[in-house]
């Protein structure tokens, strides 16, 4: 187990004079009992070193799954992983103990066996002989300990982390019980120092297991994408699913002040006009117009159309109001998704701790956290231009250059929307707020009436040229909803 040069030197010196009073450089008991102890300590050191790497390499999620599958040693390994600070204390205590025993045995052998032989054979002083004797024993012992007791077992543990962790965890649990006072002391001191340091540095909570697991999943997803096992969209879904566990529904909701609502006391025809301008499918319904805190349910645009067709003489709006689900604003997005799927609903209210309505969330909003922006035929701004009498009906996505080429109306140099690329940009720049259906903008000889809005963008507007001498009005806004 010793290095080659040192072994040759020791064997040679031993063979020179076996008849000396000391019995040679290394006597029989050194080759036997003391050498056996050092080899045993190096072997035990390798076990602790391997376990340290294996326990750190296996993820907590993997150990939970193995424990659920009733794999041998998995429950103990899970316990050791969940108590990582104590487990590290156990490993370090074991390594320190075996190292101290090996050093003591080696040093004792050097002092008792090697030093007298050096004095008698080489004629050196007693002090020099002791230093040389310790060097001849400790240096090879250190080399062997590093290679056999540290590097080899750690590399093996890295390649077989799961197997090593499950196999050695029961022994480590038993050892932790046998030295629990020391383990408790070390763990208490370490946690105290860490808490003090985190308070001073302001990094408390950075090492929580949940955060570590999320980092591992992100790394795995990145590696899988780099290996072409998954694409960008699949990686986005994985990362989105992770974030849904840590983010609240408040972070994705539409604030209530931006919500278009229908009036429970208004006629079906009036609500149809409001809904038609906003171009959504589901609308919250309020008991008092303009007061979102009085939402009593929601109405589906399809139900409005169907009711008007079935009973055109006497249509009633309240008969189609559906109950609406309420969620807490601090609820996890994943929990909200589960509730909405269980209730078979696509829209829900979001309430704060006082029960006040602070916004709404839709199933589409949640799914967009997984797959990114979901666009339907209305999300992509249309770019049509259709002449209608003395005016033009234009989509919000039409460019101002194309609008000028067809209508002769130049919007590109009109402040404060100079530089706008599309009709939607021009309208948004002039209003300085979110666009609403029915907004009217009159600038110079141009009048733009917003006809349809979806997700706060102009879907369609009527563009006309003001008659000569007709004074322009200030930009106005419709107050029926958002």
Automatic annotation (TrEMBL):
Q: How does it sit in the membrane?
A: Multi-pass membrane protein
Q: Where would you find this protein in the cell?
A: Cell membrane
Q: What is its main location?
A: membrane
Q: Which GO terms describe its molecular function?
A: flavin adenine dinucleotide binding
Q: Where is the CBS domain?
A: 320-377
Q: Where is the CNNM transmembrane domain?
A: 27-234
Q: Where is this region: Disordered?
A: 461-482
InterPro entries listed in its UniProt record: CBS_dom (IPR000644), CBS_dom_sf (IPR046342), CNNM (IPR002550), FAD-bd_PCMH-like_sf (IPR036318), FAD-bd_PCMH_sub2 (IPR016169), Ion_transp-like_CBS (IPR044751), Transptr-assoc_dom (IPR005170), UPF0053_domain (IPR051676)
Q: Which UniProt keywords apply?
A: CBS domain, Cell membrane, Membrane, Repeat, Transmembrane, Transmembrane helix
Task: List where the protein spans the membrane.
Answer: 35-61, 88-111, 131-153, 174-196
* GO cellular component term, pick one: plasma membrane
Q: Which organism is it from?
A: Candidatus Jettenia ecosi
Give the protein name, as stated in the record.
Answer: Magnesium and cobalt efflux protein CorC
Q: What is the lineage of its organism?
A: Bacteria, Pseudomonadati, Planctomycetota, Candidatus Brocadiia, Candidatus Brocadiales
- Annotated SMART domains: CorC_HlyC (SM01091)
Task: Give a yes or no for keyword Transmembrane in this entry.
Answer: yes
């Amino acid at each position: 187990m010793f290095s080659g040069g040192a072994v040759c030197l020791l064997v040679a010196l031993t063979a020179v004079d076996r008849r000396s009073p000391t019995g040679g450089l290394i006597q029989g008991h050194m080759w036997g009992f003391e050498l056996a102890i050092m080899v045993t300590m190096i072997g035990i050191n390798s076990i602790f070193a391997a376990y340290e790497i294996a326990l750190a390499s296996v993820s907590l999620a993997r150990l939970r799954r193995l424990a659920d599958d009733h794999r041998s040693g998995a429950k103990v390994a899970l316990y050791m992983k969940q108590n990582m600070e104590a487990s590290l204390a156990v490993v370090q205590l074991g390594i320190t103990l075996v190292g101290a025993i090996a050093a003591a045995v080696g040093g004792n052998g050097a002092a008792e066996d090697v030093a007298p032989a050096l004095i008698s054979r080489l004629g050196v002083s007693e002090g020099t002989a002791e230093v040389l004797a310790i060097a001849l024993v400790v240096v090879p012992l250190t080399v062997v300990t590093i290679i056999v007791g540290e590097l080899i077992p750690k590399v093996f543990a890295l390649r077989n982390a799961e197997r090593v962790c499950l196999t050695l965890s029961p022994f480590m649990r038993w050892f932790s019980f046998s030295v629990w006072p020391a383990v408790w002391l070390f763990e208490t001191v370490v946690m105290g120092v860490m808490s003090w340091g985190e308070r001073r540095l302001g990094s408390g909570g950075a090492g929580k297991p949940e955060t570590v697991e999320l980092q591992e999943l992100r790394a795995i997803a990145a590696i899988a994408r780099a290996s072409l096992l998954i694409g960008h969209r699949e990686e986005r879904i994985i990362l989105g699913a992770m974030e849904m566990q840590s983010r609240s529904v408040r972070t994705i909701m539409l604030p209530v002040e931006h919500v278009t609502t229908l009036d429970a006391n208004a006629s079906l025809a009036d609500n149809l006009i409001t809904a038609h301008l906003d171009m959504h499918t589901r609308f919250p319904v309020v008991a008092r117009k303009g007061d979102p805190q009085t939402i009593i349910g929601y109405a589906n645009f399809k139900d409005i159309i169907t009711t008007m067709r079935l009973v055109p003489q006497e249509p009633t709006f309240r008969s189609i109001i559906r109950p609406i689900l309420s969620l807490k604003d601090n609820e996890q997005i994943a929990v909200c998704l589960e509730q909405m799927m269980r209730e078979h609903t696509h829209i829900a209210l979001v309430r704060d701790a006082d029960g006040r309505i602070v916004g709404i969330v839709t199933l589409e909003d949640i799914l967009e956290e997984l797959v990114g922006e979901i666009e339907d035929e209305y999300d992509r701004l249309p770019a049509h231009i259709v002449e209608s009498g003395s005016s033009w009906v234009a989509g919000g996505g039409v460019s101002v250059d194309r609008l000028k080429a067809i209508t002769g109306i130049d919007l590109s140099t009109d402040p404060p929307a100079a530089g706008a690329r599309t009709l939607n940009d021009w309208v948004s720049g002039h209003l300085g707020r979110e666009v609403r259906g029915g907004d009217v903008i009159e600038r110079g000889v141009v009048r733009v009436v917003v006809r349809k809005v979806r997700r706060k963008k102009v879907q369609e507007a009527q563009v006309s040229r003001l008659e000569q001498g007709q004074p322009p009005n200030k930009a106005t806004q419709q107050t029926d909803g958002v």
